[in-house]
Design brief:
Elements lengths: L2 H14 L6 H11 L7 H18 L1 H17 L4 H30 L3 H19 L13 H12 L8 H11 L4 H29 L6 H29 L2 H18 L1
Helix pairs in contact: 1-2, 1-10, 3-9, 3-10, 4-5, 5-7, 5-9, 6-8, 6-11, 7-8, 8-9, 9-10
Length: 265
């Protein structure tokens, strides 16, 4: 892997993991416009480590409060705001985890095609446009009801469909339930922590079973670059959506979907 390939793949992973534009669609386009060979499972693991480190670092203060509140809730059986948010993240991860365990192989063989990604990008992008259009939601992630959490959790399971975008579908669901744009994005980012962890663990299992040599220098720089780009992406995305909303990302999704259809259909 040369430095240009390392840089491009790291930035693509770091930027698209948290934006509502589908990282899988971008990663499948990279080989189309380049002559690069597959980067390998070890490098994928490194990129996941980088993006996971970024979101944990960005929300470190929230995570400390949530962890402490969650621990106290186990002892006292009482929920404060931090404990409720921690339990919400846990409960909202269960549907996508179960769906991933039961449907992952079928989805990989039957749905992982550029055409499916294209229609998912366009269809779920238009749904995001509807949810965001004229959004006047004012509730924060700490004001969610358990009904809200269930709806977002079920929506997150749809992210297994290639091209949907995990962040995109969870933000869409949160907006439909009346959360503000910033709250919807923040909760989506918090939900990414267990999901990225689970995905990374699956890749590590695959890596352990393989006997390919590992380029540790490439892994280090891949994790570092994807982590830095992901951290900056989270910060500026939260600022951006307060001013302009989700419509620019919708337009981008539709154009990307059309591009995929042009190349692959």
């Amino acid at each position: 892997m040369d430095w240009l390939q390392l840089l491009v793949l790291s930035l693509v992973q770091g930027l698209t993991e948290f934006l509502p534009i589908s990282s899988s669609a971008h990663l499948i386009l990279v080989p189309v416009v380049t002559s690069w060979t597959d980067q390998g499972l070890a490098f994928d693991v490194a990129l996941h480590v980088g993006t996971l480190s970024a979101v944990v670092l960005y929300f470190r203060h929230d995570l400390v409060r949530m962890t402490l509140g969650w621990g106290r809730s186990l002892q006292t059986r009482q929920l404060n705001e931090d404990a409720r948010l921690a339990w919400a993240v846990i409960f909202a991860t269960i549907p996508v985890g179960l769906a991933g365990i039961t449907l992952n192989s079928w989805i990989a063989s039957e749905l992982r095609s550029p055409v499916v990604m294209a229609f998912s990008l366009i269809g779920f992008g238009l749904l995001l446009a509807y949810a965001d259009w004229g959004n006047k939601g004012a509730r924060t992630e700490n004001q969610m009801t358990w009904k809200d959490v269930l709806f977002i959790a079920l929506a997150q399971a749809l992210a297994l469909i290639p091209g949907t975008s995990r962040s995109g579908i969870t933000i869409t669901a949160a907006l439909l339930m009346g959360l503000s744009r910033e709250a919807a994005a923040r909760f989506s980012f918090l939900l990414s922590i267990p999901v990225i962890t689970l995905a990374g663990m699956l890749e590590i299992l695959g890596l352990v079973e393989s006997d390919h040599p590992v380029d540790w220098q490439a892994l280090f720089w891949g994790a570092l670059l994807s982590g830095i780009s992901a951290y900056l992406c989270i910060h500026y995305f939260l600022v951006f959506i307060q001013r302009l909303g989700m419509q620019p990302f919708v337009a981008y999704r539709v154009l990307l979907g059309i591009l995929l259809l042009y190349f692959f259909w």
